[in-house]
Structure formats: C-alpha cells, structure tokens
Design brief:
Helices cover 41% and strands 0% of the residues. By secondary structure, the protein is mostly helical. The longest helix is centred in the middle third of the chain and has 14 residues.
Length: 54
C-alpha cells in the first residue's frame, strides 16, 4: 500500500488546476513528491490493480 496522504501535492494540484497535468508529468511528480525523491518508480507484479483515493 502506498500512503499518499503525507506527500506534497502542491505541484500536482497546481498543474491540475491549470489543466496542464498530463500522464507523463503526473507520474514523474507522483514518484518524486508523493512516493519520495530518488526512487526509480514502481512496479506491479500482478496483471491488474486498483487505485483507491480517499
């Protein structure tokens, strides 16, 4: 489980509100600002997954 509640959503929210949030920059921002800078992203070994936003 990724707990995204402690990340910094400022850049993502700013781009969302400006209608400038694309898939490629969302993933980069999410990895850097929410999961943690310096990671290489994520990998899911299953064939499907569910994302739950609270």
């Amino acid at each position: 489980m990724i707990d995204a509640s402690r990340g910094d959503w400022t850049d993502i929210e700013t781009r969302w509100l400006a209608s400038d949030l694309r898939d490629d920059n969302f993933e980069d921002l999410f990895v850097d600002e929410i999961i943690g800078a310096g990671t290489d992203g994520w990998e899911f070994s299953g064939s499907s997954y569910t994302v739950e936003l609270r």
